[in-house]
# Entry
Amino acid sequence: MSVDVVAHLVRIHINREPYDSPNPTTGEALYGLAQIPPHERLYREIDGDKEDKLIPRDDETIHLKEDGHFYSQKVIEIFVNTDEHEIDQKHISYAQVVDLYLGSGGSPSNEYLVKYSHGPAENPSGTLAPGQKVAVKDGMRFRVAGTGES
# Structure
């Protein structure tokens, strides 16, 4: 390696494993460096109470900090009224399910009835009420219908 290349390498950690990466780099390069599978997403750990930052799997420039930490997380596929959605959380709230429904062209209503099935052992099926959340798993199904009531 030339001196120029070594001078621009930084040590980072992905899933607790150390790597030397060029700086700046791209999301695609980071996914490749740690061999992150297609069904996982990569996140940069952020200090404090802020949300960790998703690293897109693309060629956007990413500036690294020495000893920066990243982790991967499995993407979970769920269905809302037969529309497939990918989420990266272990739980989903009533409001998030309704937002997915409306984002897929669902009809606006004053209130919604949200039923689910094919869930994990702790909540295989049931009704999700406002303010509640449930654990999710791959292939879980949600059915959202506007009640029309106010």
